[in-house]
Amino acid sequence: MENKILAYVDGRLKESERLEMEKHVAACGACQLRVNEFRAVASLLDEVPQIEPSAAFDVRVRARVAAEPVKQGWWAWFTPSPRVAFAASLLLLATVWIGSRPTDRTLTAADEAQINQDLPVLENFDVLSDFGALTDLPQPVQPDDTGDSNPDQNQNQQKNDSPNQTM
Amino acid sequence: MARSDVQLMLDVKAGDEQSFELLLQRYRTPLVNFLYRMVRAREEAEDLAQEVFLRVYRARKDYVPSAKFTTWLFRIATNLALNSVRDNRHQRMEVSLDAPVIIDAEDGDEKPLDIAEKHPNIEQYMIEEARKKMIRHAIDKLPEKQRAAVLLHKYQELDYGDIAKILECSESALKSLLFRAYETLRVELAPLVARHGK
Asked: What is the pTM for the complete model shown?
């Protein structure tokens, strides 16, 4: 009977059960007291006020829903994203451009003659670039701005500056 | 004519985001209130309610209307709330013993001066507040499963069968659970119950 008291108080019993319960409650003081007390409890629970969700609540829900990744089917694996497609296009263009550039130039006879002429120098480039004696050479003489200097004097001066000069 | 919850959910499944918005508006207040009464912290209740809506949205593609939408919704909410209550039980006990009494939004969120200004009959106001606090305290003291049963039964007005599905128990077990909960409330609220009967 106790399991039916609450349903009776709520008015959730079937009609036949309700009539049966009413008869019982009328005859049973303990159950009548319990029914009254449960009604009082239910009434007291109604006094608890409701709260309103904060203004930010809806905004947060919408933001979280918007941040959800879009579910895609298995075929989505074969569909490149715009970024990947763009990067692949750039790579393809770069490959085509590099491939289209001339890889070898044909040399003319004059080019070959020039290379043959420069070849000994190039072969000894390391030696020449580090050749100490070259640093000992006299500094070139600056031409006189006045223009009235005697060329012979310059020549003599050069001889005097020469490291091979014998005094 | 308003679309049913199931129809709205099926529309969400078909890609109609506006239907989800309608479900949000329809259930935001009952859900936040249920969770608030379960976890007793407004911010946490809103976080959990957000999580419930998010889970509903995530499950839209697999949604099959095999049960009532509210049963499904409150089953998610109840599981989240029960987990949260169990996780925070020790922390909550420490807080309730050590923390000063804070008047929250439901209590009015008013300073004493505001109360005096807004409520000329301050004595009557204080009596009413004490009464509400006593009722809330009695609900809080219920074991979490009984509390969930009472809240779903009293405030969501769900059928016994739906509540039993939400709490994953038989209907007769639910009726026993509710009876025990009301017995506890009857004892806890005895002074108010006695006055109510007069």
From this structure: 0.67
